[in-house]
Please model this.
Amino acid sequence: VCSVTGFYPGDIEVRWFLNGQEETAGVVSTGLVSNGDWTYQILVMLEMTPKCGDVYTCQVEHSSLQKPVI
Model:
C-alpha cells in the first residue's frame, strides 16, 4: 500500500515499480479523497504475491515536489 496524504492541488501521479520496472497490472487506487481542508489523500495498492528478493517501490510525483519521492 502506498499512502499519500495532505497534498494540494489534487493532480498527482503514483506509480509502482518491481525491481526498477514500472508495474501496471494489479494496481488499484481509491482515487482522490478530499480531507475537507483543501488537501487530498490517495491510497494506491499493488496486488500481487511477493517473491523473495523482489524490490517493490512506490514513486510519487506532485507539483509541490522538486523531484519524485520514492
